[in-house]
Design brief:
The structure is a homodimer. Helix content of chain A is about 30%, strand content about 40%. Chain A contains five helices and eight strands. The N and C termini of chain A lie far apart (about 60 Å).
């Protein structure tokens, strides 16, 4: 045994992480996760995203309490600045995912991290959204990420771990998004 | 004149929207937006993303107050379920962006929307993140989106508008993400 069930590293219960890995190795369909969001528009750029149910380990589950993320725009983009804008929320998801990935991967190697801080800057050219130039990309054209890590891992290993982040891969690779529209 | 400066449609100040479009047409560099996130790891899957400064209309700006998005994981993914998980946050960003895009595009056409609700389901195969199968995609493999719209637009026009969402394009097209790691 390389771990006991009570050990945590980086706040991650390593015994449970190993058990999960072994369970998925025996039964790969346990790895299928379906994440869900419900969104309700308020007015202008204001909407509420609710996270409630999800599917994992072959069963329907719910968060302990439904969770909400509000969205707005700053005044210069015609909003009321009460909440992050949608592209900032997506970038926040990237930041959370890269950070959690590093904490889990390091824990899996038995490496304690003392601190992890990171900065993200993403470029958007509004000529795309506003349809002023058909050559302009509509989404992020580039994102720059800077990690500051205190812990016993070298830079190359950290970078390799960060590239295993699901949201990093969602940004860097094309994802099929199927849209269905219903008039009500 | 097709609008006065006091008109709002869908809560969007259409006069200001048109002024912004005209300003960018005259001076395309006004369209460059740099969005930023700072992330600080707490422990396990818990981290805080802070949205504070951004660059737009050729100047440095700040949100009225720094905004925060917390991240955690449900218990089955070894977290404490106090906040959405990173991939849910990214999906919430997609939902906010598609919703805001529709409200703005419809406003630009002078079409009032009565209600907009939408549902998102994204597939993740944890064999990718856990490195159990090199063939498995690490990020979202597919996202299904369903919009229910009450308003005077046909389904095809709504779908075309939704595809102009910056975060939709961030999901569906590859984005270059540059990583810099510093040991501290």
């Amino acid at each position: 045994m390389t771990s006991t069930t009570n050990e945590t590293t980086n706040g991650v219960h390593v015994g449970n992480l190993i058990n999960t890995v072994h369970a998925i190795q025996r039964q790969p369909k346990l790895a299928a996760l379906k994440l869900r969001v419900q969104n309700k528009w308020a007015t202008g750029p204001r909407s509420t995203a609710t996270l409630d149910s999800f599917f994992g380990l072959c069963q329907e589950m719910h968060h302990e309490h439904p969770l909400e993320i509000y969205s707005d725009e700053p005044a210069v983009v015609l909003g009321t600045d009460t909440a992050p804008n949608p592209a900032e929320i997506a970038l926040a998801g990237l930041s959370a995912c890269m950070t959690t990935t590093l904490a889990y991967k390091a824990a899996g190697m038995g490496v304690e991290l003392e601190s992890v801080e990171s900065e993200y800057e993403g470029d958007v050219d509004l000529q795309g959204f506003l349809e002023l130039n058909p050559e302009t990309e509509i989404g992020y054209t580039e994102v720059r990420v800077k990690f500051k890590v205190k812990g016993d891992l070298d830079e190359a290993t950290i970078e390799e771990m960060l590239k295993k982040s699901p949201v990093y891969n969602t940004f860097t690779k094309p994802v099929k998004v199927k849209i269905l529209v219903e008039k009500v």
